[in-house]
Fold:
Amino acid sequence: MIYKQNVAVVTARTWGVMVFGFLATALVYALIFLQVGGEDAALFWADVGETAIVGVMALVVIWSAFRFGRGEALRRNWLLIGMGVAMFAIGDLIWTYYEIFLGVEVPYPGLPDVFYLLEYPFVALGLTLAALAFRKLFDIRQPLAISALVVALLLAGAWVVLLGDMVLYTETALAERLLTAGYPIADMLLGFAPAFFMVLVVSRLGAGRIGWPWWWAAGGFLILAATDTAFAWLDWNEMYRSGHFIDAGWMLGHVFVGIAASLAVDVNTHRPTQGSRQP
Amino acid sequence: MSSICDRFEEVLTPYVGPAVAKMVLRGAARGVGKDADELEWGDVASLVENLRSLLEPVMSADAADAALAEAERRASL
Structure:
């Protein structure tokens, strides 16, 4: 009889996070896109829907982190990522409070930006530490060098296409210009770079299951970095409108991260399967 | 490779993929002063300790312990 390796199974919990996340994102986006209930209702769904989805995903990630033992590297890494997602959710909550409950324009730069920007260092640290942990298994210098080179090229390209104009445009306040340019810069340095580095690292694992969650997490942060950068470009060129398809990006990216965290618990749970010979 | 190495590789491959499983085993075997294909039953305890220190930064302690116990059990058969 061929021995079947004990396998980690994708649990109903992870499937549940996936189904909830994708359906909720599709529903909220449909409500925004179709302007169900008018413009004010669409704004309500955009703000409240995104806050709820990102908030749930923050809880999923933090809950998952605590499934790992005290002092374990996986607990620390997922907790950092969970804190990052929670920062974004708090930013969304404050944004929603201003826009929906107070009915005023959200200050820019304002308090939500503090929390939105705080997501970057937490996530960058969590992802980078997780990717660096693989250095004991194989040489990670090549992925590190490639991701640094790609990010440098992207930053140079972004300066030409977007950032140069943003920083040098003198008709708005310096703080606003720096913040407007700061988002895409942070997206590339603290979002895209660690996520791309992680992709290059886990690609070495082939189908190895400890890489699965990191594919999802890196995918999520790549979606978020692309969404933020696209938003900055569209907004700068006055082409952004509420209901644009990139609105779904912030929700979808965080859903990917929630799925990743739940999957991390699954693949790190050892379960005997049918076919295992007992000692 | 020795049959001991094969047994460990079977267990590690689903977690880290075939290429990295081979690489990790080579590294852990070097830690006990041997090539992977020279491993003997007497080396297993040290091999397991070396593998644990390599795997724990990227796997939960429970999963690493269970996988290594399973590999050790298979190697003993």
About this structure: The two ends of chain B are 17 Å apart (CA to CA). Chain B touches chain A at residues 10-11, 13-21, 23-24, 53-63, 66-67, 70, 73-74 (CB under 8 Å).
